[in-house]
Amino acid sequence: MSIELAESMLLHRGVSLDEIAKIVYSLQIYYYPSLTMEECLASVQSVLQKREVQYTLYTGIALDELAEKGLLPRPLQDLLAADEPLYGVDETLALGITSVYGMIGLTGFGHLDKVKPGIIGVLNDKKDSIHVFLDDLVAGLAAAASARIAHQCRSGQSRFVKGD
């Protein structure tokens, strides 16, 4: 896989990296007033370059697409079609993305999963397609990119320290 393939898969499902960057920006602008959208987008792209993140996205998107086509075995098909509230595998998969940047990623994910800002809410509320995994994966990606910024910024400044 590659970042280009991962971005293409997201776009195919209606999600742009810019939309994810907007969520990252909303999470971090309070702490880093000089933060730019370009820095947020760069952080999303950096997280998306990690192979384990790409594999997680591929898995979740594939499951959503198979569920839309009715190709999963029962009862899994029924759980995904109904977006069963107690089905937590989608959150568990997304937590794999957040763990790349520690506890701040986990807490950011919890907030995003509850509030569902921007594209996360759009995906969650869409009734003509299945995004059981994708809304959580996008939240995980945004939380990880946000945590990356928090780890790399110093003293409330939005200039990143060297390294990842």
How is this structure best described in words?
This protein is mostly helical. 66% of the residues lie in helices and 0% in strands. The relative contact order is 0.20.
What structural keywords apply?
single chain; 164 residues; 66% helix; globular
The portion of residues forming beta strands comes to: under 5%
What does the radius of gyration come to?
A: 16 Å
Query: Largest sheet, if any?
Result: none
Extract low-pLDDT stretches.
none
Instruction: Decide which structural class fits the backbone.
Output: mainly alpha
The residue fraction in helices comes out at 55-70%
- Total number of helices: 9
* Intertermini distance: 21 Å
Please provide the ordered H/E string of secondary-structure elements: HHHHHHHHH
Q: Number of DSSP strands?
A: 0
Q: What's the overall geometry?
A: globular
Mean pLDDT: 93
Describe the structure in brief.
This protein is mainly α.
What is the topology?
Blueprint: H1 3-12, H2 17-28, H3 37-48, H4 51-68, H5 76-82, H6 89-98, H7 103-115, H8 118-125, H9 134-152
